[in-house]
From TrEMBL:
HAMP domain mapped to chain residues: 148-200
Alphabetical keyword list: ATP-binding, Coiled coil, Kinase, Membrane, Nucleotide-binding, Phosphoprotein, Transferase, Transmembrane, Transmembrane helix, Two-component regulatory system
CDD domains per UniProt: HAMP (cd06225)
TM region positions: 124-146
The protein's name: histidine kinase
Enzyme class: transferase
Record InterPro entries: BphY/WalK/GraS-like, HAMP_dom, HATPase_C_sf, HATPase_dom, His_kinase_dom, HisK_dim/P_sf, PAS, PAS-like_dom_sf
Amino acid sequence: MLPATVLGRFLVQDRYERELQLRVRNPMSQYADMLSRAMAVPVWTLDKAVANQFIQAVMRNPEVVSVEVFDESKSIFARSAKFKKADAKFLHEERPILLETKVIGTVMLELTTEHIEKELWADFLKLGLALLVQVIFSFILIWLLFERRIVRPIQELQLATGRLARGKLDQPLEWLRQDEIGNLAQGLDKMRLNLGRLITEREAQNIVLQQELNERLRAEQALKITEEKFIGIFQASPVAMTVLRKSQHYNMIDVNDAWVRQFLWSHDEILGDTDTQKALWRSENDFFEILRIVERDGEIHDYEAWLTCGRQEKIILCQVSGRMIRLGNEPLIILVQEDITEKRQNEQEIRNMNTTLERRVSERTQALEVANSELTVVLENLQRAQRELLRTEKMAALGSLVAGIAHELNTPIGTSVTVASTLAQHTDDVLLEFDKGMRRSVLEEYLKNAKTGADLLLRNLSKASELVISFKQVAVDRTSANRRVFALDEMLSELIVTLGPTIRKTRHDIILKVPPKLMMDSYPGPLGQVLTNLINNAFIHAFEGDYRGTVSIMARVVDEEFAEIVVSDNGKGVPEVNLGRIFDPFFTTRLGQGGSGLGLNIVYNLVNEVLCGNILVESELNKGTSFKITLPLAPKLNDDDVQVSAE
């Protein structure tokens, strides 16, 4: 039994490999090749319906578990799958989808060996059961042989002879002594055994032959199913396909409907006449070369040849690809003939257009170089004019500041002069009274007047001193870009004091909301100019007529490195169409009415280039405008760069 088991295992393993090759690997390779060709057009044209038709045709094979088509970006273009058992074995096949020579996607197939394994396992069980039955049967025969030879050797001889005559060989002939009867019994028993062995061998051979016949029938049925699927896919292909039979000197045995539409020959015309098949090829050398390559390599790709279409003798350029396959034991060649005539014409037209475009681009490039040279000169002139306007704007602002401070100083200094002259006059009167003999009441009145005058002098001179100190600090900051450590609230308070004359000429208010001792190591001059320009911009553009507006300046610490300053007003706002251009140089809505278009451009340049921050604007009509300035508490910029930027 052991040799039979070992031999049976090798037979089953050999049959398993043949079945696996015939029913799984070969169809899987054929399906992959077919789909890689057939999917090129649907993937390129994004036609998922046609792609799903091809996939469903392949999925009719029970061994096919899943078919996936990926596009060029590795995304799933089309997919179909069956239920997978966790313990089943699967084989995979992957092919690129080529459009000409470019990979535009991938086809992945997955087939299961479950059905083959089940069938082989069933056959293996049958073989084992047959061996077991044979062993049991042999054991019974041997047992009966010994039993009858020992217990009833002589008595059973006659019965055994009768049974032999009737062809019954299940009972052995037994004897007790070596005599003529014993020799006869021995000869008869040998004959019975020989007959039994021959009959058993014949039955075993019959069983083997029946199994082989069943296997052949199953293989023929599977081949028939495969052929039917192949024919369905072959006819549904949108690409012209031809099948050639090697045994018939590579005559065409079938063409699909796409081939008939492309070459304008009917099935009967092309398949029934070898002369017509030869006339298909403009040059027979191309046909022989294709056959030579396919026989050598087993396949051919992208071979270009001229072919004739129908009786009209129209010639088209085709790209021929193909592969040699086997259906059963018969070798066939499948050729795909794709019409690329229009494609090559388009490529030639594109090459001609590219030549023309290169000449036109060269001419345009020369014209643009001339225009760029002229624009460079105009831009340099514009930049010089912009720098000149910027200096004018700064000097005008400083002059306005000086005039306002001078006006503010006039009142406290004039009052102080008047009080001082009055005290001098009273002092002269007291001296005259002193020479004549001063009365106590006169001295008391003089002391009261002197105290009042001293208080007036002190208050007015203190006010003038504050104005001078603030003006001095602001003027120094405006005329230089020196970096220093300062408190933001104190710097803004000095700025508001300096702008006091300008603010009092209007009906508007300025509100400061700055946390105390917010220290910055930056450039107060450029920062003061930024805030001055924003305040003046609000006075000029945000408030019109008799409207009394409010400008709010708020500041806060964002984190350890940055602070935020928000300058907002409750004016008329900025139209949305102008928000994107509000920081552009020379852009103003009050051209010729006091607006130069440089105020906010100066603000933008100072914030970004000098203060190393950024500025954003938000506005809504009739609800006001808000400028958000984000500044580093200590910008990482050397003084040389700042001085250059300030100049």
